Amino acid sequence: MTATLTVSEENLRADALISRAMPELSRSFVQKLLEEGRVTSGGKKIKKSEKLKPGAVLTLDLPEPESLDVTAEEIPLDIVYEDRDVIVVNKPKGMVVHPAPGHSGGTLVNALMAHCGRELSGINGVLRPGIVHRIDKDTSGLLIAAKNDAAHKFLAAQLADHTLSRTYEAVVIGNLKEDSGTVDAPIGRHPTDRKKQCVTEKNSRPAVTHWRVLERFPGYTLVECSLETGRTHQIRVHMASIGHPILGDTVYGPKKPVPGLEGQCLHAKKLRFIHPDGRELELECPLPQYFENTLRALRRR
């Protein structure tokens, strides 16, 4: 299977450029394609660090999906919407989205494989079948998976042009002075901790988060955050960067865990996107029990 891409930006490495233009492909998968000589321009193999001129046409030789070496597991799914093209689930906090070192089982992918069989898209490789976008292990809420490659490409294009709307609710530490605002700050990998992201101009990508206050408590604020972009840990990094980390986030906020709260108080509550058949779908799921318990405790303060 081949795909073509016309370069429209300059001063970007080939791996970064392809990852930005084709968000359905993970950065590591793109780098593997480049290392194996599967990306060419005019018959010439492209190196991952190579910077390309606008107008250049890249041809990507995408390997056929490998047989999936991931075990299907009968794990209950909270299905919010499903048809022959897409499935939208409400992921619980604590569930990893796809297998990775240390998390070979019990993931959302294991559960989707049991529920969908071999209907999932193969675009994102053998470990991430059907996965169009991700949310963190300790973030709960809505996530879309594609059941075929055509649906996957259609949804990934909406991620790329920012028309797929994702809205979260979060409890942040401290009192925001304004009732709404926008954090427009590029995000890249942390210079000393490979597991973290940070606001930085170096080797970063644009990131925009809009927020508005829903409710105020002594020392805390309930906010709604909507994403223009979808960078790793974006809301967590952006809110921490303005001095209001997510409650319970021990990576970007206070290191001491909050008693009774495992992971950050962050929930992907709403999704709006165009279905491959042309319909606009707007889906919503309620706040999970852990989140409601936190709000009740804050209202009693």
Can you describe this structure?
The chain has 301 residues and is of the alpha+beta class. It has three domains: 2-61, RNA-binding S4 domain (Structural Genomics Hypothetical 15.5 Kd Protein In mrcA-pckA Intergenic Region, Chain A, Roll), CATH 3.10.290; 66-157, Pseudouridine synthase; 165-268 and 290-299, 2-Layer Sandwich (Pseudouridine synthase). The protein contains six helices and 16 strands. Strands 5, 6, 7, 8, 9, 13, 14, 15 and 16 form a nine-stranded mixed beta sheet that branches. α1 crosses α2. It is globular and about 65 Å long. The termini are far apart. The model has no long low-confidence stretch (mean pLDDT 89).
**Spatial gap, N to C terminus:** 59 Å
Helix-strand topology string: EHHEEEEEHEHEEEEEEEHEEH
The amount of beta strand, in percent, is 25-35%
Structural class comes to: alpha+beta
Q: From the alpha-carbon coordinates, what is the Rg to the nearest angstrom? A: 20 Å
Instruction: Report the helical percentage.
Output: 10-25%
CATH superfamily of the largest domain: Pseudouridine synthase
CATH architectural type of the largest domain: 2-Layer Sandwich
Number of strands: 16
CATH topology value of the largest domain: Pseudouridine synthase
Q: Please count the helical segments.
A: 6
Task: Label the overall shape.
Answer: globular
Biggest sheet details: 9 strands, mixed
Overall number of structural domains: 3
Global mean pLDDT: 89
CATH class of the largest domain: Alpha Beta
Show unreliable segments: none
